[in-house]
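Exam revision sheet. Question 4 asks you to relate a sequence to its structure. Input first:
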Amino acid sequence: MAKSQASVEFLDGCIIENDYFFTSTRMDAQPMDEYDHGRLQWFDDGEWFYQDRNWQVSSVCVMSNFAGDMKRAYVALEESSGIVGFYVPGSENLIDEILPGAENGHGIPSLTDINQIGTSLYLCGYGGKVMQRAAGKWVAFDNGLKTTGLGDYLRQGMPLSEALEADDITQRDMCAVDGYSEAAIFCVGREGLIFYFDGNMWLQAEKPTNVDLNCVHCAGDGFVYAGGNNGVLVRGKGNHFHALHTGIHDNFYAATWFDGHLYVGGLKGLYRLDKDELRYVETGQGNFKCRALDAGHGQMLVVAKRWLSVFDGMHWKRIDHPDNI
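Answer key, structure tokens:
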């Protein structure tokens, strides 16, 4: 890995160890409609390092048992190439895995989130896509969730205009995935979609809202929370969810559990859930766009558009990228 030399905006991030973070960024020099470049950034106790990729990375995570030998790997989900990259500490070799259906450069559009649940990796995306990586192999994991799509309607001989209308009705665009175990996985998406995998099949929860749900987190209080547009925060277990009254005018894109509380990140900053009331958290940075949240190793990581911030339960510490100053 090398040191970076170009200003960036952060897209996602997670904690590796105390004061050691892994993030996905997009270079400011890229035109807004170009996605054929991604830059991964590591912050390790005051030092920044980077690695470029051939496509924008929509989601990152840390896998604790890569290759079954208990070595961890830093995982990067490319947004539309259908490729997942693995970086193993102590190795110079990058391992890129091509997802089923993305062979020969076909790609897979709109892959949105990746997480380790149990011993496996799970990813989701638009079109009802969910995939699992178990025993080193990627397989489709959307049986019962994926529905008939545009290509299916066209192959059935439906005219394009009718196929587009039918596809708009049946499409299940998933934005985030999380789980307590491989027998309790939750996927949320556009227009209030919530799906629950109980170890045998996907079950669709009755919609508690019709707004887009952008993030989901299986919290330490035993409840699952999903945040969305227009200040919507839903809570539930299994396939039963209800919307909390937040009174917040913001769009939520991140959630995590830290120090006995749920934290939610939106376009205007950070919030904490206290006795079913969502309250703005003063971080000392004013309003900011929160792109991601993560907790672990005694810290909570806040990924803003231009900088990182870390909370240890008592004090906030802002971390600036040297090329963004």
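Marking note for examiners. The chain has two helices and 28 strands.
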